[in-house]
Amino acid sequence: MAVHNDKYFLSPPPSPYDAPEVEVNDWAGDGWIEAHDPAAQKALSILVRSIISISMDRFLRALAASYESMKEEFYPDALVPIAPGKSNQWVAALAHHRLGLQGQFCKLGEKEARELVKDGGFFESLDPKSWPRQIILFDDASYSGTQIYGHVQAIKEYMETHEHKHVCTILVCVPFMTQKAFKMLSKLQRTSTASPPPLGVPSQRGRRASRITLKIGLYERMQTVFEIFDSLPLERQALSHLYKGTAYESIFEEETGVTVTFPHHKLPNEMSFFGPLAEVAVYPASPHTPHLHRIIPEITPIYKTE
User: Fold this and answer.
1) Is the pLDDT of residue 115 over 60?
2) Residues 167, 201 contacting (CB under 8 angstroms)
């Protein structure tokens, strides 16, 4: 198997405790709220008071719990795809050096694992008879679920539609997820593992079908912005009006996976953590808006500090 069990992939990760403790600035939050239209201030106050910061200790406990929930099923020759320089690599390295993960490491494509399964990609470099019987996917958190779903789907579809019939288990070890992300992944648990024959081709009795099984490790559930305001129609309406015409309008009316939860080792992008809150941006913009201090300090992702 053309894998990369070398120093680049397996070197010890930056110490989790190199990440500074992060404090939410409540005073700055009050200033941001007061800079908005009074009609939206109550709703914005609820948003600010709902911020959850995940300490490094809590993150490591959740990672260990997720790992331990599937540990008995891990094979020492499992394939562990990683994305160099991303959170996925850092979490997999933590699992390797702190929790005893063993496996064969390979490069994970940034776009839904397509580099693994594209023409001339990793899987095509292997004899199908030597395909991995187990694949473990790591990450720190899943908000919308789109990325981890894409990775699983790309691998699953490739194996299930290939003429070589294979048995493989895909394990997902992500210690923090929204319910939206979990439900999205769960759809792949329910899909058929047998590919039907093309139209006009009779099924071949006795022919073994690929069986690709998905298992999701224990995780802590993150509350989304949609869930915060789901039972607060007046506040939800006020925020929908405030952000009308912006990229944030829809997150109050439908589940998108956007949260106000962040781990101390990084601040997620604006479609995972509510962007205006992270950047203390005031809507609508005005030249008379006072200078505002950050509610959450800027955080350099720990896996990009070296």
Assistant:
1) yes
2) no
